[in-house]
């Protein structure tokens, strides 16, 4: 049965996101000293800030542990961060319970096989343009942008537009 974006997006109060391959392009750079670096797209970060400003929650859920992720979450004011969970579903359920949302009120955006159990357990399953084939088959929405290049911003815009809230964030032009 076909559902409009409005019908799908209306109950969403929480977006949970994978990190590597969703908020980054999936490349992990480690220098000779063992220092890890990742690149984050500024518009994804701005989208997260707008989502939170609209009164909704945003969380990060990743299988890896990274100081870079902790720092980026702090910079964006993301309090819900779970790192080091190869099995992401228990961590996702714990976050949902702590936040006080039901699975049908949750959107999860992932890109690879470890994301499938969470995607199959939420109201809106989303993947990036360059997500794995199996993840795309499960997703309700496949973003036009790849991971680390605006997919999260695209998702947030689409949900806020469906909720009739996107225009709230477009500044008026001076005359």
Compact summary:
The protein has 175 residues and is of the alpha/beta class. It has helices at 5-9, 42-53, 67-76, 88-99, 116-119, 133-138, 151-162, and strands at residues 14-17, 29-30, 36-37, 57-62, 80-83, 106-110, 124-127, 141-142. The chain is globular.
Account of the protein in words:
With 175 residues, this protein is an alpha/beta fold. The protein has a single domain, classed as Rossmann fold, CATH 3.40.50.1000. 35% of the residues lie in helices and 17% in strands. The protein is built from seven helices and eight strands. The chain has helices spanning 5-9, 42-53, 67-76, 88-99, 116-119, 133-138, 151-162, and strands at 14-17, 29-30, 36-37, 57-62, 80-83, 106-110, 124-127, 141-142. The strands form two sheets. The chain has a six-stranded parallel sheet, with helices on both faces. α5 (116-119) links the parallel β6 and β7 (124-127). α2 packs parallel to α7. The longest helix has 12 residues, at 42-53. It is globular, with a radius of gyration of 16 Å.
């Amino acid at each position: 049965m076909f559902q409009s974006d409005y019908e799908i997006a209306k109950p969403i109060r929480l977006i949970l996101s994978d990190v590597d391959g969703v908020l980054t392009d999936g490349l992990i750079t480690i220098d000779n000293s063992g220092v890890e670096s990742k690149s984050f797209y500024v518009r994804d970060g701005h989208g997260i800030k707008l989502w939170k400003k609209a009164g909704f929650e945003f969380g990060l859920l990743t299988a890896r542990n990274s100081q870079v992720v902790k720092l980026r979450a702090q910079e964006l004011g993301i309090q819900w961060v779970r790192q080091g969970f190869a099995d992401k579903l228990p961590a996702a359920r714990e976050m949902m319970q702590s936040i006080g949302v039901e699975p049908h009120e949750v959107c999860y955006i992932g890109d690879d096989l470890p994301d499938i159990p969470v995607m199959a357990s939420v109201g809106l399953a989303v993947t990036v343009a360059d997500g794995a084939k199996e993840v795309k088959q499960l997703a309700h929405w496949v973003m036009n942008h790849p991971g680390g290049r605006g997919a999260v911003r695209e998702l947030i815009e689409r949900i806020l537009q469906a909720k009739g809230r996107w225009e709230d964030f477009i500044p008026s032009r001076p005359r």
